[in-house]
Inverse folding.
């Protein structure tokens, strides 16, 4: 009973003290964790994966289904093991070294390379923030709320969430918000997709078509993003997890990888079953137009509500994650205090960067850019950044980990191949789609 009270009352859960099992000097993997340990450890993987299916990713998936039917559905399935493999390395690095991603790069390769990596992170974060606020603005317009009102209220809400809570409280809030994305899974199911049509579409991938390649690159960039790597590694450190929780942390990541791709597939299936099958020439240049194209098939009131819940859940959880990632990443290179356990007056730079990133994203979106085209372009940009992001991740997994945790043997070769293939596919598809 006393330990349970510690868990509930402590802002940063020290699972090393509460649940650590005896282990050898070689850091042998522990036995399968109990459900109590899993409940404490779970969070970073699920949060980052729910954020992965952000407003921009939802828009990309909807565009894919509307324009190409089920021809990009197989890609969503193939990305599940790749996504898990990438994020598992971040978990391993965070638990074994107790350091963030940028901090490790600076330590192993020097400040210059660390700044290069964090620069790609910041570019990705700014791009992501634009897509999140674009989704929020679009949902507000569905109900007659101006972008100024919906975005301003969102910024105020998210500042309060971060400034008044510990990591654990922010994590719980993010999960509860992100679960609204499951609305897309429900409506995809009730849209009665044809299993035969899905199988036929998955078997046909027109890789010679540049428009198809552009959306393929957008989908790869929508699933594997630079900020995800920085966030999950920093999150497991800020949460106080250690190597004794590795199996629970891996399970958290695996469940999250499946959930996020199920949501992506659901959005694609919904768009393919409705817009793609019955109105393939519909204009989809704004979030409102995507919603208007879906609503006739879902019912006016419920169509708006379901679309709004899914899009807001995706945008809000991703906004929290992306802005925190920018603040953590800069702190790892510059050295300022960077924990949600610290009061805003104790870590002014950390909370300042968090707020500034929110304001930058909000300000650019309120300037009136084309939101849907922006979302697809941002995710194509993510695909073009993959060689830098995944390259550093692979090198750190080979060099920065203790010997018993390093990538080696056949699995190192497999991961290296996946990194090269995924990076190459993203860059090739992105460049060919832009030409």
């Amino acid at each position: 009973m006393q330990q349970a009270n510690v868990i509930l009352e402590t802002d940063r859960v020290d699972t090393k003290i509460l649940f650590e099992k005896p282990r050898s000097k070689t850091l042998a993997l522990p036995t399968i964790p109990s459900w109590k340990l899993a409940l404490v450890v779970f969070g970073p993987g699920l949060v980052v994966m729910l954020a992965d299916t952000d407003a921009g990713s939802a828009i990309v998936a909807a565009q894919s289904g509307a324009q190409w039917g089920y021809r990009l559905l197989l890609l969503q399935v193939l990305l599940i093991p790749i996504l898990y493999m990438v994020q598992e390395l971040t978990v391993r690095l965070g638990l074994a070294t107790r350091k963030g991603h940028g901090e490790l790069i600076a330590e192993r390769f020097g400040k210059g390379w660390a700044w290069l990596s964090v620069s790609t992170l910041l570019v990705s974060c700014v791009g992501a923030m634009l897509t999140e606020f674009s989704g929020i603005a679009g949902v507000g317009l569905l109900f007659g709320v101006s972008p100024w009102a919906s975005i301003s209220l969102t910024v105020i809400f998210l500042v309060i969430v971060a400034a008044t809570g510990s990591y654990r409280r922010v994590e719980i809030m993010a999960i509860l918000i992100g679960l609204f994305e499951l609305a897309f899974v429900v409506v995809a199911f009730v849209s009665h997709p044809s299993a035969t049509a899905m199988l036929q579409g998955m078997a046909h991938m027109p890789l010679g078509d540049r428009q198809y390649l552009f959306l393929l690159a957008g989908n790869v960039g929508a699933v594997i993003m630079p900020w995800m790597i920085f966030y999950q590694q920093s999150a497991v450190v800020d949460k106080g997890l250690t190597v004794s929780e590795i199996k629970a942390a891996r399970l958290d990541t695996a469940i999250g990888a499946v959930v996020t791709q199920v949501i992506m597939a659901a959005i694609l299936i919904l768009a393919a079953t409705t817009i793609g099958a019955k109105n393939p020439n519909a204009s989809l240049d704004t979030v409102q137009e995507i919603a208007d194209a879906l609503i006739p098939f879902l019912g006016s009131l419920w169509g708006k509500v379901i679309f709004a819940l899914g899009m807001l859940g995706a945008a809000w959880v991703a906004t929290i994650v992306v802005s925190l990632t920018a603040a953590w990443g800069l702190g790892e290179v510059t050295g300022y205090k960077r924990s949600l356990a610290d009061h805003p007056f104790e870590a002014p730079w950390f909370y300042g960067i968090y707020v500034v990133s929110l304001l930058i994203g909000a300000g650019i979106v309120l300037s009136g850019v084309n939101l849907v085209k922006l979302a697809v372009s941002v995710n194509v940009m993510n695909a073009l950044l993959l060689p830098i992001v995944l390259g550093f991740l692979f090198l750190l997994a080979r060099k920065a980990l203790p010997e018993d945790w390093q990538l080696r043997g056949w699995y190192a070769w497999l991961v290296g191949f996946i990194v090269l293939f995924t990076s190459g596919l993203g860059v090739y598809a992105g460049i060919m789609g832009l030409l």
